[in-house]
Amino acid sequence: MANFVLQLPTSNLRSFSVYASSNVECKLGAPMGTGSQSGGPVILELPLDKIRRPLMRTRANDPNKVQELMDSIREIGLQVPIDVLEVEGVYYGFSGCHRYEAHQRLGLPTIRCKVRRGTKETLRHHLR
C-alpha cells in the first residue's frame, strides 16, 4: 500500500475529489468510490481553515502535549495524519486535537489528514 500527499491551495477551495487505485492509472477529479471497491481513506494536505471542529469546545487540550508536538513538528514534521470525515464536500475533524492546535500555533496553513468519506448519518453518529 502506498501513501501520497496532495497539497491544495489555501484559498478558493470549495470541494474536490480524489480517486486512488491500485492500478498504475490515477485520476484526479473523479468521484470518490467510483471504480474502487474499498472506498478507503486517502491522505491529503488540507488547509486548517477548511476543517470544521464541531467538538472543539467540549474539552481543553493539554498545553504541555501541544508544546511537545510543536517542537516535534518543527524538527521532523507531522508523523501521524489527523482523521477527517468528508461529508458532501465539507471536512470534519474529530481527532488529532493536539496536532491541529500545534499546527495552528506554529502558523502552518495546512495539515496532513487521513480523509474518509461519510454520509450525514455518519456525521450525526460522530456528534452524539
TrEMBL record:
It comes from the Eukaryota. GO terms for cellular component: cytoplasm. The keyword Protease does not apply. Keywords: Antioxidant, ATP-binding, Disulfide bond, Nucleotide-binding, Oxidoreductase. ATP binds at residues 96-99. InterPro entries: ParB/Sulfiredoxin_sf, ParB_N, Sulfiredoxin. It catalyses: S-hydroxy-S-oxy-L-cysteinyl-[peroxiredoxin] + [protein]-dithiol + ATP = S-hydroxy-L-cysteinyl-[peroxiredoxin] + [protein]-disulfide + ADP + phosphate. It is an enzyme of class 1 (oxidoreductase). Belongs to the sulfiredoxin family. This is Sulfiredoxin. It comes from Theobroma cacao.
